[in-house]
Amino acid sequence: MKKIKYILTTIFTFLIFTNQTFAYSFDVSVTSKTVTVGNSITLTINGSDLAGKFTISSSNNNVASVSSGSVFVDNDTQRITITTKNTGTASITINPEDVTSYSGETVSGSKTITITVNPKPQNKPSSGGSSSGSSGSSPQAPKSTNSYLSSLTVEGLELNEKFDKENLEYTVNVPADTEKIKINAQLADSEAKLTGVGEVSVSEGLNTFEIVVTAQNGSKRTYILKATVEEVEPIKVVIDNETYTVVRKRKDLPSISEYFAEKDITINNEKVEGYYNDTLKYTLIGLKDQTGKIAYYIYKSGKYTKYLEYTFNGTTLQVLDKEVSGAKLTSFIYDSDKIPSYQEVKLDIIKNTYALDNNDIGGNQFYLFYAINVETGKESLYQYDASEKTIQRYNTLILDQYKDRSDKYYMCLLGSLLLLGITIITFTTILICKNKKNKPKMKLSKEQFVEPKDDLPIKDEEEFSFDDLPIKKEKTPSSPKKTNKTKKNR
Question: What dihedral do alpha carbons 141, 143, 148, 154 form, nearest 10°?
């Protein structure tokens, strides 16, 4: 048994060492993302298994500036002070400019943290009287900060969204040939002020209106109403059994990146205003679904393919509907849109594959998807960090190496289990054989012992004859009996 324990200990020690993985990474964090003007923030850069120069920059130095434009990280932690000057927001970008991992791989992918700088709180004005508890005029009540609506409607029409005071954008479909609509709204606080309501003019296509609520203390909240007047003779198309309307005018389309130029397209012998990208050879037009939502589609030879474009920390990508192998289909929210994506999953607990999905471990904020860089036209696998709201190209080479290492580990594990099985069988066989050898021989008692009979002749080997064997001899056929006739003849 001691030998078996020794073998098992050796095997499991071997497995522990074969399961070691080495991967570089760098993380950034700040002591606070919200600060009062005049206060400072500490930015921390933590590098693991890498070394090189990181540059740090602010999108608005008038709001927040960094104490150093670059630091050198060598498998350690560096800290930079961010000083706030004025109210507003500023994005702090940390970029690995010349960084490599200890295994010689180039580290890429910047990270951005947004800092919000709030004004200093105002002291309440003094009443001019004596201290608390003495006679004098009472202090003024603070002004209301309520800038919400309690309702928003369009007379004779129904909004596509249910009203919620926290929701600031609404849409409504208006019948063709309508020239005016009436916007009605109610304030949640009677002390607030309201602008942008009443009767307004509309034209064919998209019409956007702002309803502004100003609270008693001067703070403002803006609600957006998008009223789309239907066309008299719309161009209808059917995609996957769903009916869409072609948006004719460019002013009614959502914003598009700078990489597309204006272009007019002819559909059903009618002019449609759209866009074109020479790098991708894409012609884009707008299609409106039955709920009034407009989206871009790639138009080619009478066929329509949905176009998903998003800008992540300065990089504009076309998200592709392409499967990531060895991953689970999921989605994440970006700019209020649900973007299809994938998360790496643990396929086999024995194989110990490279990651876990959100169902196995809470807080997984990393998502994978294929996309085309609209500026360069190159397709890559990207990883989105939902916590930091940043994106970077995914290092598929490391993933492949890790998978290869995982496969080797799997083979070692199977070999070890096989060796363990053979060892157990061998030791079991040895123990059984030993038990058989050590088993005492049974002795016959006098009653069980049978004495040989004296009348049985014992012959030597030379006197052996086959006649002594108990073999039945065949009877020789007897001569035929003589019949009575023979006797008589005699």
Answer: 110
Is residue 391 one of the residues assigned to a domain?
no
CA distances for 53 relative to 78, 97, 99, 145, 301, angstroms: 11, 6, 6, 46, 50
d(CA 111, CA 96): 9
**Cβ-based burial of 227 (10 A; exposed 0-12, middle 13-18, buried ≥19):** buried
- The two tokens of residue 64 are 């927040």
Domain boundary among 85, 119, 153: 119
Residue-level pLDDT at 356: 40
Same domain flag for 217 and 299: no
Buried/exposed code over 289-303 (b: 16+ C-beta within 10 A; e: otherwise): eeebebbbbbbeeee
Examine the domain organization and report whether 250 and 228 are in the same domain.
no
pLDDT of residue 470: 60
pLDDT digits (tens, 9 = 90+) for 311-327: 988 899 999 999 988 78
Catalogue the long-range contacts made by 376-381 (C-beta closer than 8 Å, 24 or more residues apart): 376/279, 377/279, 377/280, 379/320, 381/324
Residue-number span of the structural domain to which 264 is assigned: 233-303
375: left (phi over 0), alpha (psi -120 to 50) or beta: alpha
pTM comes to 0.44
How far apart (Å, rounded) are the C-alpha atoms in residues 231 and 203?
A: 10
Within-domain flag for 185: yes
Asked whether the beta carbons of 228 and 205 are under 8 A apart, the reply is: yes
With a pLDDT cut of 90, the percent of the chain lying above it is 32
Query: Among 55-64, 122-131, 170-179, which is the least confidently predicted range?
Result: 122-131
Residue 222, pLDDT above cutoff 90: yes
Percent of the chain with pLDDT over 70: 73
Q: Does 363 have pLDDT greater than 80? A: no
Q: Are 334 and 310 in contact (CB under 8 A)?
A: yes
Environment class of 99 (CB within 10 Å of its CB; exposed 0-12, middle 13-18, buried 19+): buried
Taking Cα atoms as reference points, which of 64, 76, 82, 71 lies closest to residue 102? 76
Q: Does the residue 268 lie in any domain? A: yes
By CB atoms closer than 10 A (0-12, 13-18, 19+), residue 12 is exposed
Three-state secondary-structure class, residue 467: helix
Among candidate residues 303, 319, 342, the one where a domain is terminated: 303
